[in-house]
Model the fold of this input.
Amino acid sequence: MNNSDLWQQAGQLFPGGVSSPVRSFRAVADEPIPIVRAAGARLYDAEDTEYIDYIAAYGPLILGSAHPAVVAAIKEAAASGTAFGALSPGEVALGKRIRSATGLERIRFVNSGTEATMTAIRLARAVTGRDLIVKFEGCYHGHSDGLLVKAGSGVATLGLSDSAGIPAATAAGTAVVPYNDPNALKKWFEAYGDETAAVIVEPMAGNMGVIPPEGNFLEALQALPKQHGALLINDEIITGFRLQYGLSGLLPEADIVCLGKVIGGGLPVGALGGRAELLSQLAPEGPVYQAGTLSGNPLVTAAGIATLDVLQKDGIYDRIEELAQHLENGLGTAIRRSKATASVVRRGSLLSIFFRPTPPCNYSEASDCDLTNFARFHKAMLSRGIMLAPSQFEAWFVSAAHTEADIDQTVQAAAAAFREVSHPPIAERSEK
Ligand SMILES: Cc1ncc(COP(=O)(O)O)c(C=O)c1O
Done:
């Protein structure tokens, strides 16, 4: 079966032909590439074409695909049962590793990042007895109703500001403030501080492209909720165990931390954690209900433990940092030489190319990019065997499986792709 056959069949089965919207390649006006297998930093489609992978399953695959230690751990766990519906040693072992790396006193495992943030908000509302939540424009925290307001990731990719089907009363419980704007947050708290249950934030935004925190933003985040009796929810679902082993360190005083992606080694996972007295409000110890048939699943915890074990080995984050730095430098040079109107932003293994002259500092600037040029760039990279997420708003993920040669190949492809974007062929120019 070839790529197009599979895509046609998927179109008859799934809305938009996919199980998650960004995978549809709509934002780059292309047909998606079905992936049949993956190894390390390589993806292979249904026609056995090979790609260097920077999607990394949108973040979990910090070791690349099918890392031998992770595969062995999953196989071994599977042979002893794929789900127990009971406490299992894998949960305890992964929980202990996360606790010792993050300082989170109590942890609840769930199946996705969406569940983690949804539960964090329920918990914050319960302990504060307040209803209002503050989020930041362009930050994405999963697809629960109250958090799909001016969200990044697929919502931004599809040009939506909110999702249909969310009750007005639910949306009204979420206030949206610009990212990197401490004054706007201060004004919110001056007006509604005593009604606000929590502020939820990505400490470094990764769902409107990579936008690091600037100025006093992080200080304001740590101070203002506390001053007004609200909680701070730190969404480290992308950044946790990716920027370094443990939490990013950007918001050390958060009350609740959400994790996901890397801690599940490529299997479905989420977690929330915090102080014992706070997390003990969750059922069955406390009155805040949350549950999951497959939560703490033994295959997931085995994959997570194996991943964290490899990540604890000496020098792995340094190596990823070197590769990512090399990529950033190469892309920067390619942009300058091609005179493309683009900028590159990188923190650790997260990177974005923005088709605007300077890096954005918030969602309004991130959406003011030339998305047509991004789509051209994406196509040009794909034709050279480089698989980028099909959206300007998704980060590139560098993994420990990339090699210097992969990065060189990517930079060479990008140099040609930037030239194509800045100097489109005559036929394409005259079409406009
Ligand atoms: C920062 C952040 N929070 C939450 C989520 C939701 O996680 P999931 O897709 O596992 O539900 C994502 C997903 O990309 C994310 O990037």
